[in-house]
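Chapter review: from sequence to fold.
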Amino acid sequence: MSYDYAKNKEERPEPYTADVKGNIPSWLQGTLLRNGPGIFTVGETTYDHWFDGMALMHSFTFKDGGVIYRSRYLRSDTYEDNMAAKRIVVSEMGTMAYPDPSKSFITKAINFLNHTIPDFTDNCGNNFVRYGNEYYATSETNYIRKIDPVTLETLEKVNYQKYLPVNLVTSHAHYDKEGNTYNMGTTIVQMAKTKYTVFKVPATCEKDKGSAALKNVEIICTLPCPSLLHPSYYHSFGMTDNYFIFIEQPLKLDIVKMATAYMRTVNWASCMKYCPEENTLIHLIDRKTGKEVGTKYFTGAMVVYHHVNAFEDDGHVIFDVIAYEDNSLYDTFYLAKLKESSTPGTPPSTPSSKPKYKRFALPLQSDKGIDVGEDLVKIKYTTASAVKKKDGKLHCQAQVLCEDVEVPTINYDKNGKKHRYVFMTSAEMSAVATKIMKFDTETRTKIEWSEENCWPSEALFIPKPNGEEEDDGVVLTSVINSNAGQSGFILVLDGKSFTEVARAYVNAELHMDMHGYFIPQETLDSGAAEEQAHL
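The token string follows.
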């Protein structure tokens, strides 16, 4: 059986008690949020790209061995405007929309002036981010939408630009033990500059309870973009105890083309260009000073969407990513291609470049006295290298640990620390995952879970309180189930053995989503108590 990517999904806002098979650990208390596109057709109009679909959120609340499920569409301005017009009227990255298709070309040319600097969508269907005690649905634009993590109700619309000058912001933030959030955004052609900005949103202070967490945002550093009109696209970044890792890759936005896309009746995605003849720059930024380290690192052309983790070891910064040799992954998700690949007898739609799990090693020691051509990487457990070139820069060659994997997650307690285990989806067969796996970076072995006619989502590891080992805990994944007479379910796997512990059927049709976030119950209770105290 095949998965229907373009089918509109139904929301289920009222809480539903799932049918649990097996035994969910009593310590697992909290809510798993999931986010992804759910509406693809409005009236007689259809989105061109799967990523563009309107955001549908799911929650799975674990309490005392049971699961409560609900789902709700994000009531963004985009959603409201599209539904009111009964057609798609707000543009997305892969779909350019026109509020009135009857307008003449001259009228479109006049309206072009209003789209030179586009007002991006608030259809935040990629992930969730926590700032202070607030939770937001997010994509990669300057808009995020605050949500109630319990009811999934949509709350206020927040514009990053009210707090710091960024046009694009990643949806993969990082968090430290104190509750601070770190993220990264791009400022496009402001005051004749284009730059990358790393910022910090502190955990809510006592004196600021009840106020917007972003009010306290701090800019840690800015990096100038070498080209005013061609900033690099990036989806995530890395963080260790002492450093940020930013990959400035040769997948670039063409700002002039984006500014004229509306007039030329093309989508913004067509204004991205991959330049395989260019190198990838690796920026290593000191978290304490906000300055780049003196050594310059680079590698060959590649496209990275997801960082796995980064850590420091014996005078090196090690970072792992999922890398491609081109930008074909995005094109794979155009709905026309997905529909074609789901036709019986048609090979699955897959990127022309296989995703590779790559490990890089960046030496921190000075290269003074080091000969040109010498490898500065001295750790023994990786074959990654960093060779000094004539200009003094280090050419970094990665070690490939495995292939055909995506959407990596780890025990986040290990973020910034040396990790051993990674949980990923298979990218072997098609755009939708058919199995998930636990990958051991030391032995380079995999343990897999799959079931006939089932498609699992991103696998999130939840650590057991006071667990002694890295894989003490469970792995959660929501599963699309097309077996006759069965519904979708949330699957609970043992973190060590990767065997099934329990599943909870939700009596609803789940859908392929993107990313999720787990909120421990004590965190929810603490946030609710602080909010009540403020009121």
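Two observations follow directly from the output. The longest strand covers residues 303-313. Residues 421 and 440 are 5 Å apart (CA to CA).
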